[in-house]
Amino acid sequence: MIRVDLIGKPDCHLCEVASDVIDVVVADLPDALAESIEITERSILDDKALYDEWWEKIPVVLIDGELHAHWRVSPDRLRDALTLRAEEAAS
Description:
Pfam families: Glrx-like (PF05768). This is Glutaredoxin family protein. The protein has 4 helices and 4 strands, in the order βααβαββα. The protein has about 90 residues and is of the alpha+beta class. It has a 4-stranded mixed sheet with strand order 2-1-3-4, with helices on both faces. A hairpin with a 2-residue loop joins strand 3 and strand 4 (about 65-70). Helix 1 packs across helix 4 (about 75-90). About 20% of the residues are buried.
């Protein structure tokens, strides 16, 4: 299972854009890969530790707990990262 965390907050335009990018990229992946991805959206307003770490960089995308992107999410870069993560897990 590949875990993708989107850290943001409600009413954040860039967070909504990042969520849309993640959804489109995962939908375009091969079914077997897409089904192995778990997407979680977390709000900095619900977690003080998240707020303290990420408030000035939202939206933040983590892949398996590692920083992938902040502020803007590139569809191509995200697709490549998820594909690479799946290949690493398979080997």
